[in-house]
Amino acid sequence: MAIAILGGGISGLTLAWYLQRAGLDYDLFEASARPGGNLRSEQLDGYLLETGPNSLQLSPELEQLLAELRLTEQVQEAAAVSQNRYVLRRGAYQQLPASPPALLTSSFFSPAARWNMVRELFRPAQAPNPRETLSEFFTRRFGPEVVAYALNPFISGIYAGDPARLLLHKTFPQLAALEQEHGSVLRGLMKRRSSAGRRRIITLAGGLQTLPDALARQLRRAHFGQGVTRLHRHADDGRWEVETTAGPAPRLYQQVVLALPTHAAAPLLRAQFPAEAAALAQVYYPPMTAIYTAYQRADVGHALNGFGALHPKAEQPYAAGTIWTSSIFPGRAPDGQVLLTTFVGGSQYETQAREPEAEQKAAVHAELSRLYQLRPGTAPVWQHRYFWPQAIPQFDAAIEPAHAAAAALQEQGLFASANWVAGVGVPDCIRHARQLAGTLTAGW
Asked: Does domain 41-96+200-204+286-391 match CATH 3.90.180.10?
């Protein structure tokens, strides 16, 4: 008896690790020769680049996984200045208040918006609405200015998404719960903050690629460079037949786990599960480009004392925002230089994401020149581009049929463990994969 895991991103790798530790038999198949999926690092021309997530929140599950892999000593904490987050407003960067009380006292928001926040403390809760979008919820609770200058850039930065389309109960169900439990989102956040500290932001020595590489080294039945081309369930005994680019898999499987993006999983399901395949195929992954730009530190007038800056759509920017990479972690750029990672694209900036590379680099440099007080005539020391044609799954109305399809497929012995079911964060994927490993282990 064995389990086939299709996909060697962080979800598939974590699942295989915990199945192996539990003594269950498995085969993991990954099309790429490199483990980790979108979690990957590159050393290039003296710069250390993250081409997927740039840092991780240290959740309990991630912390335990690092300990199991003996990577704890490789953990690097984000610099203290990373707690400072900035948002573009009226053409300049302003620091975003870091706590609910600060929101009410900071001049970041207008007096009318701050009064709206005070009123939120006493605004009655409404009955839960599973169709409510993030924009609708925040407009109802806090007003349009908070949506435009806090919610919009945050969602663009985390989800590469549009809060007017993303569903509240699929993205931040805890906020809906706070409204129901405390009658006020702010009151609930203040109570929760008093009982739980801020999660640490980390990376690993050598970059985040260290984590999937460590997992891959430990796995005894991982087959990299073997993408799955066909998946077939036998009607007589329910076992699964898997074919890969290297030929048929060595055995039949009692269960299969899709640790793949929906657009990769859907073609494998089309022959036997057309309705479920169609649902998965509808999930939207917008394009995203990362432009890495290095300058001499002496040419940059901005202090760069923070994690980075987000750009509200209302400011009509070119890019969604920039991470101040060399301010957060050491060893990202040569001495005397700063490295900035600028994100172009997402569902609100899709046109920019698909522009030619030279145009993107020039436009990013022009925007950085204006916002970071570069010396006149300053040119980048170095620039690099990385493009995701399909970046992050959107938890909009199309995700609900996909989740329903995943639940239906589970009845056939076909499970899903990927960011489109777990949540878009790496800690979410690790937690979900570990839970699924427990479920599969209990069933054997």
From this structure: no
